[in-house]
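ingest -> validate -> predict -> emit
validate: passed (alphabet ok, no gaps, 378 aa)
predict: started
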Amino acid sequence: MRNFLLNNKQSRWLISVIGLLVLVCELANAEEARKVYLPLTFFAEARTLQTSACLQVTEHTYQDRQWWERATLSTKTPEESFKGVIAAIRKKDHQSLLDLSHPTLGRDPELFDRQANALFQQFEKVQLVSVSRSFTFDGIAVFFAKFNLEGRSFFVPLSFAVDTSGGYKFLPYRTEIVTYTLVNDWFNSPWGPTETESPSYCTEKIIKKFTHKISLIALQKPNDKADASVLFLSGMPIINGKSLKGIVKQVMYAIETMKSTDLSKVKGIDDFLKHLSLEGANRLKDWFATATQPERDRYKSELVDIEPFYVFDARPLVIIYGKTKNSVQSMHFTANENNELLWTNSSHITVMDKVFKSGYLYDAALLDKPFSEIKIKN
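emit:
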């Protein structure tokens, strides 16, 4: 009978080999995390524009692009939650998927059942190819999973949110959190990972030039330790009576020209529409054709009343804030081929309206000293 007992030298060698193998496995499954700055995406009617406003989030990259198949991870991590959800979907385990879903954001009976059944059916046909990137911000984790269906590849975001226990729970249906939309729009933009191997980020050099920063989402316990996103902007006040230069001068010229147009005349509407982007101009022209004179007068009076007081330069997007008799309004402008600023998206709502026309950024516009509390202090 062979002697399988090892001497001390052989034992040390075997322990070293095992240790090396463990290290190799850990490196293969290693996750790298870093702060990144994503340029905001602006959907300007027929165009998609990369703005110079930037959102700070944490990006996680994975060397092993099928890490969820092999990794044994610590509890309460987004990765462990992802792994559990994929296993539940593959097994068509309705109860396990429900238990893994967020108790307040992911368990609406009708919505959950509908989405769970759709996921079970879809996973019969698609192959999960890789997950090389995820993002965490504002108590949210988003994994951009790459799937294959009959030779066609596509990305699907699978999202999780922190619950009261501090763990990450699945969001089986779409969340309306504004920063989630901003990250998803960047990922699927022409300069994002969906379309290019070298996605665009804002550089540290650019970040240092910004004048304002703000968190769009209020983090509350237990989310206060989560990665809070930060929006970086460049802005300045519009001071009446001062000499106007650069982008402020362009903004004021565009607004004052629109305000001076006589909309009571047929030619007036045509002159006014020259300062709007195409879709907004066409919709306003159609409305004007059927509007009564009192309705036209009200529309004009709201525009005439506005007094611009602040501008954010996120070119090719420019955002102005103006005061009226009853409120504070914001308007979006983009430049045409002649570098003339046009009022853009005047007739429909995008995620940028949630960013600039509501929430904490809009609240900052209402201060006695507008935006003073979000100004970066040198």
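The chain is about 35% helix and 25% strand.
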